[in-house]
Automatic annotation (TrEMBL):
The chain crosses the membrane at residues 12-33. It comes from Alcanivorax xiamenensis. This is Type IV pilin Tt1218-like domain-containing protein. Pfam families: Tt1218-like. It comes from the Bacteria. Keywords: Membrane, Transmembrane, Transmembrane helix. The keyword Plastid does not apply. Residues 32-108 form the Type IV pilin Tt1218-like domain.
Length: 173
């Protein structure tokens, strides 16, 4: 009686499972990188919107020099986040009729608060004192998410931590 031993040809089940495991680990790693890239893109977009909003505030201050002192008073700003989806401010409505410098200042601050709340997640904006080296000056502060406005500029010093969810621009002129 003759027993023939044939060599195994083809791929066995164990090899297929190992290959699938290696492939699955690679796909999961790629998916994690994609999620991280999406998060970074979202953070960059929010920071860009906040920077544009702070610049808009600076331009409004420069455009209305008669009310500059009102803009620069920290307590003249409503520090709450504008409610997402609420109607834009209409009192006073300086788009429909002419306003004096104080009315324009009030309308600007209400509009900026509304824009912060609708462009940024839990967005907030105000002007407050900040440290500019040897002198104390004013800064436009925009914060979003769970970041408190006071955490962006603390004791006059600007928060430069990478995890800070705020943009700070100095008011100079």
């Amino acid at each position: 009686m003759h027993i023939s031993r044939e060599r195994q040809s083809g791929v066995g089940m164990v090899e297929i499972l190992v290959a699938l495991l290696v492939l699955a680990i690679g796909v999961l790693g790629y998916a994690g990188l994609q999620l991280n890239a999406l998060k970074s893109t979202e953070d960059a977009n929010i920071r860009s919107q906040a920077t544009a909003l702070a610049r808009d505030a600076l331009e409004r201050i420069v455009a209305n020099p008669q009310a500059r002192s009102t803009y620069l008073q920290q307590n003249s700003w409503d520090t709450g986040a504008g409610a997402l989806g609420e109607a834009p401010p209409s009192n006073p409505n300086c788009m429909a009729s002419s306003c004096d410098s104080d009315q324009m200042s009030a309308w600007d601050r209400n509009t900026l608060r509304w824009q912060a709340g609708n462009l940024l997640p839990a967005g907030k904006i105000r002007v407050q004192p900040c440290d500019s080296g040897t002198t104390l000056t004013s800064c436009v502060v925009v914060a979003w998410g769970d970041q408190a406005l006071g955490g962006c500029v603390d004791g006059g010093n600007i928060n430069t931590d990478d995890s800070a969810k705020c943009v700070v621009m100095e008011v100079t002129r």
